[in-house]
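Inner membrane protein YgaZ
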Amino acid sequence: MPSTIPKSPFVAGFWAGMPFIAVGFPFSVFFGIVATEAGLSIAQASGFSLVVVAGASQFTALQLMIEDAPVWSVVAAALAVNLRMAMYSASLQPHLGSAPFWHRAFVAYLNYDSSYAISMARYEQNPPLNVREKVRFFIGTVSLMTPLWFLGTFLGAIFGKSILVGIDIDFAMPILFLALVAPMVKTLAHLAAAVTSIIAALLLAFLPSGTGLLVAAALAMIVGAEIERRRGR
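Tokens:
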């Protein structure tokens, strides 16, 4: 890596995660606004973010709650949207599997789209990091975003719609995440998995509660793994 990168893995992770704050913080504020508009109290909205810490599943669950869906449906939908975290965890296991249990538990709580993508990109670069350094880097990526997510929800719940009047941020997270993931597509298996996931996600968009994305992700992993196997890797 370039010499300008800080020697401390935690500090390097901190700076690597900074771009996501520009999008993540407004989203947390927006969640606080929507949650209170849906009837949740400030404490409930803040607790929601504190316990779940996952924007996509939080918005999914909240939408179903607004529609008076059964509790089991709300929980199932939130779990379905967040099942991708299980896939993230599986791919992190070779890197962090030997870390102490409480380290792995902490990483599991902080396993977001951004922290996963940033960390995996770093783990595949040189110079390599040992397990302890990998954990520190991972935590560094969300050391600021996590408290800001909680704070944003709280502020949104208190001040309401006046905070984001006239601002549309729906497009920002996909663009930012795509910019981070695209450079990671380095092999034929990566490319095939990416193309498979795109096509499958579009074809399965009619499925409810984000299940189409889960099926698309599973198909992409199968295709990528099969190509890797056939190439003798």
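Residues 173 and 179 are 10 Å apart (CA to CA).
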